[in-house]
Amino acid sequence: MSRPIIFAIPKGRVLDEALPLLRQAGIEPEAEFFAKESRALRFATNVEGLSIIRVRAFDVATFVAHGAAQIGIVGSDVIAEFGYSELYAPVDLAIGHCRLSVAEPADAQPEELSQASHVRVATKYPHLTRAYYERQGIQAECVKLNGAMELAPSLGLSRRIVDLVSSGATLKANGLVETATIMEISARLIVNRAAMKMRAAELVPMVERFRAAVETSRVA
Amino acid sequence: MTDAIAPGLLPEGLADRLPPKAEASARLVRDVLDTVASHGYRRVMPALAEFEETLVTRLQSAGAEDLLRAVDPVSQRTLAIRPDMTAQVGRIAATRMAATPRPLRLCYGGPVMKLRADQLRPERERMQVGAEIIGSDSVAAAVEIVNVAIEALQRAGVKGLTIDFTLPDLVPTLAAGPMPVAPLDVEAVRARLDAKDAGSLVELGATAQPYLALIEATGQFHPAMDRLEAFNAGPAQGALTETIEALRAIARPIGWDITLTLDPTERHGFKFQSWFGFSIFAEGFIGEIGRGGSYSVARTDGTSEPAMGFSLYPDPLIDAGFGDEAGKRLFLPIGYDAERANALRAEGWITIAALSPTDDGKALGCDATLEGKGVVPL
Q: What is the pLDDT of residue A1?
Protein backbone atom coordinates (compact mmCIF):
# COMPACT_ATOMS: atom_id res chain seq x y z
CA MET A 1 0.00 0.00 0.00
CA SER A 2 1.45 3.33 -1.05
CA ARG A 3 -1.08 5.77 0.41
CA PRO A 4 0.78 8.49 2.28
CA ILE A 5 0.86 8.82 6.04
CA ILE A 6 0.11 12.34 7.25
CA PHE A 7 1.70 13.53 10.49
CA ALA A 8 -0.08 16.57 11.99
CA ILE A 9 2.02 18.91 14.10
CA PRO A 10 0.82 22.00 15.97
CA LYS A 11 2.20 25.41 15.25
CA GLY A 12 3.85 27.27 18.08
CA ARG A 13 5.62 26.39 21.26
CA VAL A 14 5.26 22.61 21.27
CA LEU A 15 6.79 22.44 17.79
CA ASP A 16 10.29 23.38 18.99
CA GLU A 17 10.25 20.74 21.70
CA ALA A 18 8.80 18.13 19.34
CA LEU A 19 11.49 18.44 16.68
CA PRO A 20 14.25 16.64 18.64
CA LEU A 21 11.81 13.79 19.38
CA LEU A 22 10.88 13.56 15.70
CA ARG A 23 14.55 13.41 14.85
CA GLN A 24 15.16 10.65 17.39
CA ALA A 25 12.22 8.76 15.92
CA GLY A 26 13.97 9.01 12.55
CA ILE A 27 11.80 11.73 11.01
CA GLU A 28 13.47 14.80 9.45
CA PRO A 29 11.23 17.38 7.78
CA GLU A 30 12.40 18.92 4.49
CA ALA A 31 14.27 22.25 4.63
CA GLU A 32 11.18 24.20 3.54
CA PHE A 33 9.57 23.28 6.89
CA PHE A 34 12.06 25.50 8.75
CA ALA A 35 11.81 28.43 6.34
CA LYS A 36 10.06 31.22 8.27
CA GLU A 37 8.64 32.85 5.17
CA SER A 38 7.23 29.61 3.72
CA ARG A 39 3.48 29.62 3.22
CA ALA A 40 3.33 25.90 2.50
CA LEU A 41 1.24 23.82 4.89
CA ARG A 42 2.33 20.35 3.84
CA PHE A 43 5.92 19.18 3.86
CA ALA A 44 7.80 16.10 2.77
CA THR A 45 10.14 14.22 5.11
CA ASN A 46 13.13 11.94 4.76
CA VAL A 47 10.76 9.00 5.29
CA GLU A 48 9.15 7.92 2.06
CA GLY A 49 5.39 8.28 2.03
CA LEU A 50 5.37 10.38 5.21
CA SER A 51 4.27 14.02 5.02
CA ILE A 52 3.96 16.57 7.77
CA ILE A 53 1.17 19.12 7.98
CA ARG A 54 1.44 22.11 10.29
CA VAL A 55 -1.92 23.26 11.68
CA ARG A 56 -3.41 24.79 14.83
CA ALA A 57 -3.35 22.55 17.89
CA PHE A 58 -7.14 22.11 17.97
CA ASP A 59 -7.08 21.20 14.30
CA VAL A 60 -4.42 18.52 14.86
CA ALA A 61 -6.96 16.60 16.94
CA THR A 62 -9.70 17.13 14.36
CA PHE A 63 -7.56 16.05 11.41
CA VAL A 64 -6.44 12.90 13.21
CA ALA A 65 -9.89 12.06 14.63
CA HIS A 66 -11.40 12.17 11.15
CA GLY A 67 -8.59 10.11 9.70
CA ALA A 68 -7.47 12.93 7.38
CA ALA A 69 -4.13 12.67 9.19
CA GLN A 70 -3.14 9.35 10.71
CA ILE A 71 -0.79 10.49 13.45
CA GLY A 72 -0.04 13.73 15.26
CA ILE A 73 1.25 15.56 18.29
CA VAL A 74 -1.06 17.58 20.49
CA GLY A 75 -1.50 18.66 24.11
CA SER A 76 -3.60 16.55 26.46
CA ASP A 77 -5.78 19.66 26.98
CA VAL A 78 -6.97 19.47 23.38
CA ILE A 79 -7.58 15.71 23.59
CA ALA A 80 -9.64 16.16 26.74
CA GLU A 81 -11.55 19.17 25.41
CA PHE A 82 -12.75 17.32 22.30
CA GLY A 83 -13.11 13.86 23.82
CA TYR A 84 -13.01 12.36 20.32
CA SER A 85 -13.67 8.63 20.48
CA GLU A 86 -11.40 7.98 17.51
CA LEU A 87 -8.18 9.26 19.03
CA TYR A 88 -5.56 7.07 20.61
CA ALA A 89 -2.92 8.74 22.78
CA PRO A 90 -0.39 5.93 23.15
CA VAL A 91 2.68 7.93 24.18
CA ASP A 92 3.07 10.75 26.70
CA LEU A 93 5.85 12.73 25.03
CA ALA A 94 6.67 14.54 28.28
CA ILE A 95 7.10 17.87 26.48
CA GLY A 96 5.02 21.03 26.36
CA HIS A 97 4.29 20.87 30.08
CA CYS A 98 1.79 23.41 31.36
CA ARG A 99 -1.53 23.42 33.20
CA LEU A 100 -5.09 24.45 32.60
CA SER A 101 -6.01 26.89 35.33
CA VAL A 102 -8.62 29.28 36.56
CA ALA A 103 -7.40 32.85 36.88
CA GLU A 104 -9.03 35.92 38.40
CA PRO A 105 -8.07 39.56 38.85
CA ALA A 106 -5.53 39.91 41.66
CA ASP A 107 -7.51 42.74 43.21
CA ALA A 108 -10.93 41.05 43.03
CA GLN A 109 -13.14 40.75 46.10
CA PRO A 110 -12.91 37.21 47.49
CA GLU A 111 -15.99 35.21 46.57
CA GLU A 112 -17.50 32.19 48.31
CA LEU A 113 -17.67 29.73 45.42
CA SER A 114 -19.62 27.16 47.40
CA GLN A 115 -22.61 29.50 47.45
CA ALA A 116 -22.57 30.15 43.72
CA SER A 117 -24.92 28.27 41.44
CA HIS A 118 -23.55 29.89 38.34
CA VAL A 119 -20.28 31.41 37.13
CA ARG A 120 -19.30 33.15 33.93
CA VAL A 121 -15.96 32.22 32.40
CA ALA A 122 -14.09 33.32 29.31
CA THR A 123 -12.19 30.39 27.81
CA LYS A 124 -11.04 28.48 24.79
CA TYR A 125 -12.03 25.29 26.66
CA PRO A 126 -15.80 25.40 27.23
CA HIS A 127 -16.16 21.64 27.60
CA LEU A 128 -13.45 21.18 30.23
CA THR A 129 -14.53 24.34 32.04
CA ARG A 130 -18.16 23.28 32.26
CA ALA A 131 -17.15 19.79 33.44
CA TYR A 132 -14.84 21.26 36.09
CA TYR A 133 -17.54 23.48 37.58
CA GLU A 134 -20.29 20.89 37.22
CA ARG A 135 -18.25 18.56 39.45
CA GLN A 136 -18.56 21.23 42.12
CA GLY A 137 -22.28 21.59 41.51
CA ILE A 138 -21.91 24.87 39.68
CA GLN A 139 -23.20 25.78 36.27
CA ALA A 140 -20.59 27.49 34.09
CA GLU A 141 -21.62 29.87 31.38
CA CYS A 142 -18.68 29.91 29.00
CA VAL A 143 -17.81 32.77 26.71
CA LYS A 144 -15.82 31.14 23.95
CA LEU A 145 -12.74 33.14 22.99
CA ASN A 146 -9.93 32.06 20.71
CA GLY A 147 -7.15 34.14 22.24
CA ALA A 148 -6.28 37.02 24.56
CA MET A 149 -8.43 35.54 27.32
CA GLU A 150 -6.49 37.71 29.78
CA LEU A 151 -8.34 40.80 28.58
CA ALA A 152 -11.76 39.48 29.53
CA PRO A 153 -11.79 40.30 33.29
CA SER A 154 -10.47 43.83 32.94
CA LEU A 155 -12.99 44.65 30.22
CA GLY A 156 -15.90 43.19 32.14
CA LEU A 157 -16.57 40.24 29.86
CA SER A 158 -16.28 37.77 32.70
CA ARG A 159 -14.83 37.69 36.17
CA ARG A 160 -12.67 34.63 35.59
CA ILE A 161 -10.88 32.95 32.76
CA VAL A 162 -9.76 29.36 32.20
CA ASP A 163 -6.59 29.14 30.17
CA LEU A 164 -3.22 27.47 29.80
CA VAL A 165 -0.57 28.62 32.21
CA SER A 166 3.09 27.77 31.97
CA SER A 167 5.21 30.46 33.66
CA GLY A 168 2.35 32.69 34.72
CA ALA A 169 4.04 35.76 33.24
CA THR A 170 1.14 36.64 30.92
CA LEU A 171 -1.33 36.43 33.80
CA LYS A 172 0.82 38.64 35.95
CA ALA A 173 1.27 41.21 33.21
CA ASN A 174 -2.52 41.47 33.00
CA GLY A 175 -3.14 41.71 36.70
CA LEU A 176 -4.47 38.18 37.11
CA VAL A 177 -3.65 35.41 39.60
CA GLU A 178 -4.09 31.67 39.26
CA THR A 179 -6.75 30.49 41.72
CA ALA A 180 -7.15 26.80 40.83
CA THR A 181 -5.59 24.16 38.60
CA ILE A 182 -7.97 22.08 36.51
CA MET A 183 -5.46 19.70 34.93
CA GLU A 184 -1.76 19.19 34.29
CA ILE A 185 -0.93 19.03 30.61
CA SER A 186 1.75 17.50 28.45
CA ALA A 187 1.96 16.79 24.74
CA ARG A 188 0.89 13.37 23.52
CA LEU A 189 1.47 11.36 20.41
CA ILE A 190 -1.98 10.70 18.97
CA VAL A 191 -3.02 8.17 16.35
CA ASN A 192 -6.29 7.65 14.52
CA ARG A 193 -7.94 4.55 15.95
CA ALA A 194 -8.87 2.91 12.65
CA ALA A 195 -5.52 3.78 11.06
CA MET A 196 -3.71 2.17 14.00
CA LYS A 197 -5.37 -1.10 12.99
CA MET A 198 -5.66 -0.82 9.21
CA ARG A 199 -2.10 0.44 8.88
CA ALA A 200 -0.62 -1.26 11.92
CA ALA A 201 2.44 -2.40 9.96
CA GLU A 202 3.56 1.20 9.44
CA LEU A 203 2.11 3.02 12.44
CA VAL A 204 2.83 0.64 15.30
CA PRO A 205 6.64 0.67 14.71
CA MET A 206 6.49 4.47 14.41
CA VAL A 207 4.69 4.71 17.75
CA GLU A 208 7.30 2.41 19.25
CA ARG A 209 10.13 4.62 18.00
CA PHE A 210 8.52 7.57 19.76
CA ARG A 211 8.08 5.52 22.92
CA ALA A 212 11.78 4.65 22.78
CA ALA A 213 12.76 8.26 22.04
CA VAL A 214 10.86 9.46 25.12
CA GLU A 215 12.55 6.77 27.25
CA THR A 216 15.97 7.86 25.99
CA SER A 217 15.37 11.53 26.72
CA ARG A 218 13.94 10.69 30.16
CA VAL A 219 17.12 8.81 31.09
CA ALA A 220 19.35 11.54 29.67
CA MET B 1 -43.50 31.81 13.62
CA THR B 2 -41.00 29.30 12.35
CA ASP B 3 -39.90 29.47 8.74
CA ALA B 4 -41.44 27.03 6.29
CA ILE B 5 -39.31 23.93 5.72
CA ALA B 6 -37.69 23.87 2.29
CA PRO B 7 -39.18 20.95 0.30
CA GLY B 8 -35.94 18.98 0.09
CA LEU B 9 -34.75 19.47 3.66
CA LEU B 10 -34.54 16.40 5.89
CA PRO B 11 -33.90 16.32 9.64
CA GLU B 12 -30.24 16.31 10.65
CA GLY B 13 -28.52 12.97 10.16
CA LEU B 14 -31.10 11.61 7.72
CA ALA B 15 -30.57 11.27 3.98
CA ASP B 16 -32.18 9.92 0.84
CA ARG B 17 -30.03 7.48 -1.02
CA LEU B 18 -30.13 7.85 -4.81
CA PRO B 19 -28.86 5.70 -7.67
CA PRO B 20 -26.26 4.30 -7.92
CA LYS B 21 -25.60 4.35 -4.16
CA ALA B 22 -29.02 2.94 -3.26
CA GLU B 23 -28.37 0.08 -5.67
CA ALA B 24 -24.88 -0.53 -4.31
CA SER B 25 -26.26 -0.64 -0.78
CA ALA B 26 -29.05 -3.06 -1.70
CA ARG B 27 -26.61 -5.26 -3.60
CA LEU B 28 -24.19 -5.43 -0.69
CA VAL B 29 -26.95 -6.31 1.78
CA ARG B 30 -28.27 -8.97 -0.59
CA ASP B 31 -24.83 -10.52 -1.13
CA VAL B 32 -24.18 -10.68 2.60
CA LEU B 33 -27.58 -12.19 3.37
CA ASP B 34 -27.27 -14.72 0.55
CA THR B 35 -23.90 -15.83 1.84
CA VAL B 36 -24.99 -16.27 5.44
CA ALA B 37 -28.18 -17.99 4.26
CA SER B 38 -26.06 -20.52 2.41
CA HIS B 39 -24.43 -21.34 5.77
CA GLY B 40 -27.80 -22.14 7.30
CA TYR B 41 -28.71 -18.79 8.89
CA ARG B 42 -32.48 -18.29 8.66
CA ARG B 43 -33.85 -14.83 7.99
CA VAL B 44 -35.87 -12.94 10.60
CA MET B 45 -37.47 -9.52 10.15
CA PRO B 46 -37.97 -7.91 13.55
CA ALA B 47 -40.45 -5.07 13.96
CA LEU B 48 -39.25 -1.56 13.17
CA ALA B 49 -40.45 -0.20 16.52
CA GLU B 50 -41.40 -1.83 19.79
CA PHE B 51 -42.22 -0.99 23.39
CA GLU B 52 -39.42 1.02 24.86
CA GLU B 53 -39.54 -1.07 28.03
CA THR B 54 -38.89 -4.42 26.37
CA LEU B 55 -36.34 -2.95 23.98
CA VAL B 56 -34.30 -1.24 26.69
CA THR B 57 -34.07 -4.28 28.95
CA ARG B 58 -32.43 -6.19 26.11
CA LEU B 59 -30.32 -3.38 24.74
CA GLN B 60 -26.97 -3.60 26.37
CA SER B 61 -25.40 -1.31 23.81
CA ALA B 62 -27.66 1.68 24.41
CA GLY B 63 -29.86 3.18 27.09
CA ALA B 64 -33.33 4.71 26.85
CA GLU B 65 -31.76 8.12 26.34
CA ASP B 66 -30.24 6.95 23.05
CA LEU B 67 -33.57 5.98 21.52
CA LEU B 68 -35.92 7.88 19.26
CA ARG B 69 -39.13 7.57 21.25
CA ALA B 70 -42.76 8.58 20.95
CA VAL B 71 -45.90 7.88 22.92
CA ASP B 72 -48.11 5.42 21.07
CA PRO B 73 -51.59 6.98 20.89
CA VAL B 74 -53.11 3.50 20.75
CA SER B 75 -51.48 1.75 23.72
CA GLN B 76 -50.50 4.95 25.57
CA ARG B 77 -47.08 3.38 26.09
CA THR B 78 -43.74 4.65 24.89
CA LEU B 79 -42.60 3.18 21.61
CA ALA B 80 -39.02 3.28 20.42
CA ILE B 81 -37.48 2.79 17.01
CA ARG B 82 -34.81 0.12 17.09
CA PRO B 83 -31.26 1.45 17.32
CA ASP B 84 -29.86 -2.04 16.83
CA MET B 85 -31.32 -5.32 15.58
CA THR B 86 -29.14 -7.68 17.63
CA ALA B 87 -31.22 -7.09 20.73
CA GLN B 88 -34.39 -7.80 18.75
CA VAL B 89 -32.96 -11.06 17.44
CA GLY B 90 -32.14 -11.92 21.07
CA ARG B 91 -35.76 -11.24 22.02
CA ILE B 92 -37.04 -13.43 19.20
CA ALA B 93 -34.67 -16.25 20.23
CA ALA B 94 -35.73 -15.99 23.87
CA THR B 95 -39.47 -15.82 23.24
CA ARG B 96 -41.03 -16.97 19.96
CA MET B 97 -38.14 -19.26 19.07
CA ALA B 98 -37.30 -20.37 22.62
CA ALA B 99 -38.23 -23.96 21.78
CA THR B 100 -36.39 -24.10 18.45
CA PRO B 101 -33.40 -26.46 18.68
CA ARG B 102 -29.99 -24.92 19.44
CA PRO B 103 -27.63 -23.81 18.06
CA LEU B 104 -30.07 -21.44 16.40
CA ARG B 105 -28.68 -19.56 13.41
CA LEU B 106 -30.50 -16.36 12.43
CA CYS B 107 -29.78 -13.47 10.08
CA TYR B 108 -31.34 -10.08 9.49
CA GLY B 109 -30.96 -6.86 7.58
CA GLY B 110 -32.69 -3.49 7.75
CA PRO B 111 -32.43 0.12 8.81
CA VAL B 112 -31.84 1.15 12.42
CA MET B 113 -32.13 4.59 13.98
CA LYS B 114 -30.45 6.36 16.85
CA LEU B 115 -31.38 9.58 18.54
CA ARG B 116 -28.04 11.34 18.34
CA ALA B 117 -25.12 11.21 16.00
CA ASP B 118 -21.67 12.68 16.41
CA GLN B 119 -19.43 14.72 14.18
CA LEU B 120 -17.40 11.72 13.07
CA ARG B 121 -20.45 9.61 12.16
CA PRO B 122 -23.20 12.13 11.48
CA GLU B 123 -25.82 9.73 10.15
CA ARG B 124 -28.65 8.77 12.53
CA GLU B 125 -30.19 6.15 10.29
CA ARG B 126 -28.00 3.27 9.21
CA MET B 127 -28.35 -0.04 7.46
CA GLN B 128 -27.54 -3.01 9.65
CA VAL B 129 -27.05 -6.53 8.37
CA GLY B 130 -25.81 -9.46 10.37
CA ALA B 131 -25.98 -13.03 11.58
CA GLU B 132 -26.17 -14.60 15.05
CA ILE B 133 -25.67 -18.05 16.53
CA ILE B 134 -27.74 -18.45 19.68
CA GLY B 135 -26.84 -21.30 22.01
CA SER B 136 -23.06 -21.29 21.76
CA ASP B 137 -20.13 -18.95 22.28
CA SER B 138 -17.46 -21.61 21.81
CA VAL B 139 -14.26 -21.25 19.81
CA ALA B 140 -15.96 -23.24 17.03
CA ALA B 141 -18.80 -20.71 16.96
CA ALA B 142 -16.28 -17.85 16.82
CA VAL B 143 -14.41 -19.50 13.95
CA GLU B 144 -17.67 -19.88 12.04
CA ILE B 145 -18.90 -16.32 12.67
CA VAL B 146 -15.60 -14.65 11.75
CA ASN B 147 -15.17 -16.69 8.60
CA VAL B 148 -18.77 -16.31 7.47
CA ALA B 149 -18.45 -12.53 7.92
CA ILE B 150 -15.27 -12.49 5.84
CA GLU B 151 -16.79 -14.70 3.14
CA ALA B 152 -19.89 -12.52 2.94
CA LEU B 153 -17.89 -9.32 2.54
CA GLN B 154 -15.57 -10.84 -0.02
CA ARG B 155 -18.51 -12.14 -2.01
CA ALA B 156 -19.93 -8.63 -1.99
CA GLY B 157 -16.61 -7.46 -3.45
CA VAL B 158 -15.28 -5.61 -0.40
CA LYS B 159 -11.48 -5.37 -0.59
CA GLY B 160 -8.64 -4.74 1.82
CA LEU B 161 -10.25 -6.27 4.91
CA THR B 162 -8.69 -5.85 8.32
CA ILE B 163 -10.02 -7.90 11.22
CA ASP B 164 -9.13 -6.61 14.68
CA PHE B 165 -9.53 -9.04 17.57
CA THR B 166 -10.29 -7.89 21.06
CA LEU B 167 -10.99 -9.35 24.50
CA PRO B 168 -13.92 -7.31 25.84
CA ASP B 169 -13.98 -8.67 29.41
CA LEU B 170 -10.19 -8.75 29.80
CA VAL B 171 -9.77 -5.94 32.34
CA PRO B 172 -12.57 -7.00 34.74
CA THR B 173 -11.27 -10.59 34.56
CA LEU B 174 -7.71 -9.55 35.41
CA ALA B 175 -8.85 -7.04 38.02
CA ALA B 176 -10.86 -9.72 39.80
CA GLY B 177 -7.91 -12.15 39.60
CA PRO B 178 -4.17 -11.77 39.33
CA MET B 179 -4.00 -8.00 38.84
CA PRO B 180 -6.29 -6.48 41.47
CA VAL B 181 -7.61 -2.97 40.97
CA ALA B 182 -10.02 -1.21 43.32
CA PRO B 183 -13.58 -1.84 42.01
CA LEU B 184 -14.13 1.90 41.58
CA ASP B 185 -11.07 2.19 39.36
CA VAL B 186 -11.84 -0.70 37.01
CA GLU B 187 -13.96 1.46 34.74
CA ALA B 188 -11.27 4.16 34.60
CA VAL B 189 -8.59 1.60 33.75
CA ARG B 190 -10.78 0.20 30.97
CA ALA B 191 -11.59 3.61 29.53
CA ARG B 192 -7.96 4.74 29.49
CA LEU B 193 -6.79 1.48 27.97
CA ASP B 194 -9.51 1.82 25.37
CA ALA B 195 -8.20 5.27 24.48
CA LYS B 196 -4.64 3.84 24.55
CA ASP B 197 -3.99 6.78 26.82
CA ALA B 198 -0.69 5.77 28.36
CA GLY B 199 -0.18 9.09 30.15
CA SER B 200 -3.42 9.13 32.10
CA LEU B 201 -3.31 5.38 32.81
CA VAL B 202 -0.09 5.91 34.74
CA GLU B 203 -1.80 8.69 36.72
CA LEU B 204 -4.19 6.08 38.17
CA GLY B 205 -1.42 4.76 40.36
CA ALA B 206 0.58 1.64 41.06
CA THR B 207 -2.21 -0.94 40.64
CA ALA B 208 -2.96 0.38 37.14
CA GLN B 209 0.69 0.46 36.08
CA PRO B 210 1.02 -3.24 35.07
CA TYR B 211 -1.88 -2.78 32.65
CA LEU B 212 0.31 -0.47 30.58
CA ALA B 213 1.81 -3.51 28.83
CA LEU B 214 -1.60 -4.18 27.25
CA ILE B 215 -1.28 -0.97 25.21
CA GLU B 216 1.93 -2.33 23.78
CA ALA B 217 0.28 -5.68 22.97
CA THR B 218 -1.58 -3.92 20.16
CA GLY B 219 -0.96 -4.06 16.44
CA GLN B 220 -0.28 -6.75 13.87
CA PHE B 221 -1.61 -10.05 15.12
CA HIS B 222 1.50 -12.17 15.51
CA PRO B 223 3.88 -9.68 17.15
CA ALA B 224 1.04 -8.45 19.37
CA MET B 225 0.19 -12.04 20.37
CA ASP B 226 3.83 -12.60 21.36
CA ARG B 227 3.58 -9.58 23.64
CA LEU B 228 0.28 -10.77 25.03
CA GLU B 229 1.93 -14.11 25.78
CA ALA B 230 4.77 -12.36 27.56
CA PHE B 231 2.16 -10.41 29.51
CA ASN B 232 0.36 -13.67 30.33
CA ALA B 233 3.57 -15.22 31.62
CA GLY B 234 4.28 -12.06 33.62
CA PRO B 235 1.67 -9.98 35.47
CA ALA B 236 -1.36 -12.01 34.32
CA GLN B 237 0.13 -15.19 35.85
CA GLY B 238 -1.28 -17.50 33.20
CA ALA B 239 -4.88 -16.27 33.49
CA LEU B 240 -5.02 -15.77 29.72
CA THR B 241 -3.57 -19.10 28.57
CA GLU B 242 -6.92 -20.46 27.42
CA THR B 243 -7.92 -17.19 25.74
CA ILE B 244 -4.63 -16.98 23.84
CA GLU B 245 -5.09 -20.51 22.55
CA ALA B 246 -8.63 -19.66 21.48
CA LEU B 247 -7.48 -16.53 19.63
CA ARG B 248 -4.87 -18.53 17.74
CA ALA B 249 -7.49 -21.12 16.83
CA ILE B 250 -9.82 -18.42 15.50
CA ALA B 251 -7.00 -16.80 13.50
CA ARG B 252 -5.70 -20.03 11.95
CA PRO B 253 -8.26 -20.53 9.14
CA ILE B 254 -8.30 -16.85 8.10
CA GLY B 255 -6.83 -16.27 4.64
CA TRP B 256 -3.55 -14.47 4.00
CA ASP B 257 -5.35 -11.72 2.10
CA ILE B 258 -6.93 -10.49 5.34
CA THR B 259 -4.92 -8.20 7.62
CA LEU B 260 -5.23 -9.48 11.18
CA THR B 261 -4.59 -7.26 14.15
CA LEU B 262 -4.99 -7.56 17.90
CA ASP B 263 -6.12 -4.90 20.33
CA PRO B 264 -6.92 -6.70 23.58
CA THR B 265 -8.37 -3.59 25.26
CA GLU B 266 -10.55 -2.21 22.44
CA ARG B 267 -14.01 -1.29 23.75
CA HIS B 268 -15.51 0.89 21.02
CA GLY B 269 -18.82 -0.84 20.41
CA PHE B 270 -18.00 -3.72 22.76
CA LYS B 271 -20.05 -2.73 25.77
CA PHE B 272 -21.88 -6.03 26.06
CA GLN B 273 -19.60 -8.69 24.59
CA SER B 274 -17.95 -11.29 26.80
CA TRP B 275 -14.69 -13.11 26.10
CA PHE B 276 -14.27 -12.45 22.38
CA GLY B 277 -14.89 -9.58 20.01
CA PHE B 278 -13.75 -8.43 16.59
CA SER B 279 -14.05 -5.32 14.43
CA ILE B 280 -14.05 -5.27 10.65
CA PHE B 281 -12.35 -2.56 8.61
CA ALA B 282 -12.25 -2.24 4.84
CA GLU B 283 -10.18 -0.28 2.42
CA GLY B 284 -11.85 2.92 1.33
CA PHE B 285 -13.22 3.97 4.69
CA ILE B 286 -11.47 5.01 7.90
CA GLY B 287 -13.48 3.40 10.66
CA GLU B 288 -15.06 0.03 11.28
CA ILE B 289 -17.83 -1.18 9.03
CA GLY B 290 -18.84 -3.94 11.36
CA ARG B 291 -18.13 -5.86 14.51
CA GLY B 292 -19.04 -9.02 16.30
CA GLY B 293 -18.27 -11.30 19.19
CA SER B 294 -19.66 -13.37 22.02
CA TYR B 295 -22.42 -12.25 24.38
CA SER B 296 -25.33 -13.66 26.29
CA VAL B 297 -29.06 -13.56 25.60
CA ALA B 298 -31.38 -13.26 28.60
CA ARG B 299 -34.10 -15.87 28.70
CA THR B 300 -37.55 -15.17 30.10
CA ASP B 301 -36.95 -17.51 33.05
CA GLY B 302 -34.09 -15.34 34.31
CA THR B 303 -31.29 -17.56 33.01
CA SER B 304 -29.26 -16.70 29.96
CA GLU B 305 -27.74 -18.50 27.02
CA PRO B 306 -24.51 -17.85 25.17
CA ALA B 307 -24.47 -16.36 21.68
CA MET B 308 -22.02 -15.29 18.99
CA GLY B 309 -22.65 -13.03 16.03
CA PHE B 310 -21.66 -10.16 13.80
CA SER B 311 -23.26 -7.01 12.43
CA LEU B 312 -22.19 -4.87 9.51
CA TYR B 313 -22.97 -1.20 9.00
CA PRO B 314 -21.97 -0.80 5.36
CA ASP B 315 -23.28 2.75 4.73
CA PRO B 316 -19.98 4.65 5.03
CA LEU B 317 -18.35 2.25 2.63
CA ILE B 318 -21.12 2.89 0.10
CA ASP B 319 -20.81 6.64 0.63
CA ALA B 320 -17.09 6.36 -0.08
CA GLY B 321 -17.98 5.05 -3.54
CA PHE B 322 -17.85 1.31 -3.03
CA GLY B 323 -19.93 -0.75 -5.44
CA ASP B 324 -20.85 2.00 -7.92
CA GLU B 325 -21.35 -0.42 -10.78
CA ALA B 326 -22.50 1.09 -14.05
CA GLY B 327 -24.47 -1.60 -15.89
CA LYS B 328 -24.85 -1.46 -19.67
CA ARG B 329 -28.12 0.31 -20.48
CA LEU B 330 -30.01 -0.42 -23.70
CA PHE B 331 -32.73 1.82 -25.14
CA LEU B 332 -35.78 0.02 -26.59
CA PRO B 333 -37.62 2.27 -29.08
CA ILE B 334 -41.38 2.03 -29.65
CA GLY B 335 -42.30 -1.26 -31.32
CA TYR B 336 -39.10 -3.07 -30.29
CA ASP B 337 -38.53 -6.82 -30.66
CA ALA B 338 -39.68 -8.12 -27.26
CA GLU B 339 -38.09 -11.53 -27.66
CA ARG B 340 -34.71 -10.04 -28.58
CA ALA B 341 -34.97 -7.66 -25.62
CA ASN B 342 -35.62 -10.63 -23.31
CA ALA B 343 -32.55 -12.39 -24.66
CA LEU B 344 -30.40 -9.27 -24.17
CA ARG B 345 -31.63 -8.82 -20.58
CA ALA B 346 -30.62 -12.42 -19.96
CA GLU B 347 -27.15 -11.44 -21.21
CA GLY B 348 -26.97 -8.71 -18.57
CA TRP B 349 -28.26 -5.66 -20.41
CA ILE B 350 -30.48 -3.24 -18.54
CA THR B 351 -33.28 -2.16 -20.87
CA ILE B 352 -35.12 1.14 -20.88
CA ALA B 353 -38.24 0.97 -23.01
CA ALA B 354 -39.61 4.07 -24.71
CA LEU B 355 -43.08 5.03 -23.50
CA SER B 356 -43.55 7.69 -26.17
CA PRO B 357 -41.86 8.50 -29.49
CA THR B 358 -40.26 11.56 -27.91
CA ASP B 359 -38.27 9.57 -25.31
CA ASP B 360 -34.57 10.11 -25.87
CA GLY B 361 -32.34 7.12 -25.16
CA LYS B 362 -29.24 9.20 -24.71
CA ALA B 363 -30.90 11.58 -22.25
CA LEU B 364 -32.09 8.57 -20.27
CA GLY B 365 -28.51 7.41 -19.88
CA CYS B 366 -28.45 4.56 -22.38
CA ASP B 367 -25.24 3.28 -23.94
CA ALA B 368 -26.91 1.68 -26.96
CA THR B 369 -30.22 1.32 -28.75
CA LEU B 370 -31.98 -1.73 -30.21
CA GLU B 371 -32.51 -1.53 -33.98
CA GLY B 372 -34.28 -4.61 -35.27
CA LYS B 373 -32.17 -7.36 -33.74
CA GLY B 374 -28.98 -5.32 -33.64
CA VAL B 375 -27.46 -3.37 -30.75
CA VAL B 376 -26.27 0.03 -32.01
CA PRO B 377 -24.06 2.16 -29.73
CA LEU B 378 -25.42 5.63 -28.99
A: 46
ipTM of the shown complex: 0.82
Per-residue model confidence (pLDDT) at position B33: 97
The letter for the amino acid at B51 is: F
The continuous run of DSSP H or E covering B341 comes out as helix B338-346
Nearest-CA neighbor of B196 among A71, A66, A81?
A71
* Angstrom distance (rounded) from CA A177 to CA A49: 47
Angle formed by the axes of helices B139-155 and B241-251, to 10°? 30
pLDDT score at B61: 66
Indicate yes or no: CB of A196 within 8 angstroms of CB of B219. yes
Give the whole-angstrom CA distance, residue A147 versus residue B76: 52
| Pick from B83, B88, B74, B93: nearest CA to B113 | B83
Question: Any chain B CB within 8 A of the CB of A209?
Answer: no
Q: Does A175 touch chain B (CB under 8 A)?
A: no
- Judge residue A32's burial from the number of C-beta atoms within 10 Å of its C-beta, 0-12 exposed, 13-18 middle, 19 or more buried: exposed
Q: Which residues of chain B have pLDDT under 50?
A: none
Q: What is the DSSP letter of B141?
A: H
Reported as a single tens digit per residue, the pLDDT across A132-158 is: 999 999 999 999 998 889 999 999 999
Q: How far is CA B43 from CA B36, B91, B96, B104, B153, in A?
A: 9, 15, 14, 11, 18
Longest dimension (CA), chain B: 84
Helices (H) and strands (E) in chain B, counts: 12, 16
- Is B219's CB within 8 Å of A76's CB? no
Looking at B145-271, which runs of residues are DSSP E strands? 162-166, 219-220, 259-262
Whole-number Å distance between alpha carbons of B115 and B281: 25
Distance CA A85, CA A176 (A): 35
